[in-house]
Design a protein that fits this description.
The structure is a single chain. The chain has 281 residues and is of the alpha+beta class. The protein has nine helices and seven strands. The chain has a five-stranded mixed sheet with strand order 3-5-4-6-7. A hairpin with a 2-residue loop joins β1 and β2. The longest helix has 20 residues. It is globular, with a radius of gyration of 25 Å. The protein starts with a strand and ends in an 8-residue tail after the last helix. The N terminus is likely disordered.
Length: 281
């Protein structure tokens, strides 16, 4: 696993740990005073070299600057019938989030997204699609549980519980959370094992890959991609700008249900026309 940024998790190639060669004792009782002097001399040379190389008194020099990530292009992410949503329906501004229930950054962005929905209850909607990362063992079962609970209109309630307990998402724990919510347990367990639900999670992952959502959370605001657990300082201006454009379309006679696709298309065109410079990195 590697973190692409301090607010996002993303998969990477397997990191290999360096092997430690078998060591010997640092000093022996029969060591001569000459040997001790040589050891001290070696340490002195090492410290001097370290200071010259950017280390001093245990302080490490700055790491090489990371190369900037390529911009995340806008995407017209399909919204499937099984994708749980909340907020306005239809919405003038639609947020499509790709999430992982074990990702700490996904949990961190949830309050920001909920605040947007509370501020714009008649205009902003949130659609959740699953993007369980391969190094999170329990993320895929949790995604399946989320969709299974959504079949009983308890998806968002389970969503909140799982993020509050993201280190405890084993099957027995999921069953316990479902029982707390008063779900029909026979149906819930049946849906947990339903190949159709598993296929829906797979379809979400494929949609994420097509959209370039390699890490989580990745959120598309009327198609405009935002990587990571960004704050209100990023989302509020985006939503405000999209609301203004959406209202123009509605004033011109467009049905609110058609705004999402129209704004996605417009944002994709603007990005392409700018040569990829008009993006939220």
């Amino acid at each position: 696993m590697t973190k692409e940024a301090s607010d996002e998790e993303a998969p990477a190639g397997g990191d290999r740990k360096a092997k430690t060669a078998p060591g010997t004792e640092a000093a022996r009782s029969e060591a001569t005073s000459t040997g001790r002097r040589q050891l001290l001399l070696g340490l002195g040379v090492g410290l001097a070299a370290g200071a010259a190389g950017g280390f001093f008194a245990g302080k490490r020099s700055a790491l090489p600057e990371k190369k900037p990530r390529p911009p995340l292009a806008p995407a017209k992410v399909a919204i499937e019938a099984w994708n749980p949503r909340k907020g306005a329906t239809p919405a003038l501004v639609t947020l499509v989030e790709f999430t992982d229930f074990q990702c700490p950054f996904c949990g961190r962005v949830n309050p920001t997204l909920n605040a947007l929905l509370e501020k714009h209850p008649q205009e902003v909607g949130l659609v959740l699609r699953n993007r369980p990362l391969s190094f999170h063992e329990d993320a895929r079962p949790a995604a399946i549980a989320f969709l299974a609970a959504a079949r009983q209109d308890k998806g968002w309630a389970l969503h909140d519980i799982m993020f509050d307990n993201r280190k405890d998402l084993q099957r027995d724990k999921l069953l316990g959370y479902a029982k707390e919510l008063g779900l029909d347990m026979a149906k819930f367990e049946q849906d947990l094992d339903d190949p159709e639900v598993a296929a829906q999670v797979d379809a979400d992952v494929e949609a994420a890959e097509r959209a370039g959502a390699q890490g989580t959370p990745t959120i598309f605001v009327n198609g405009i991609g935002v990587r990571g657990a960004r704050g209100a300082d990023v989302f509020e201006p985006l939503v405000a700008a999209e609301l203004a454009e959406a209202k123009k379309l509605v004033a011109g006679g467009m049905a609110p249900a058609d705004v999402y696709v129209a704004r996605c298309d417009a944002n994709i065109k603007r990005f392409n026309d700018s040569g990829g410079k008009d993006a939220v990195v």
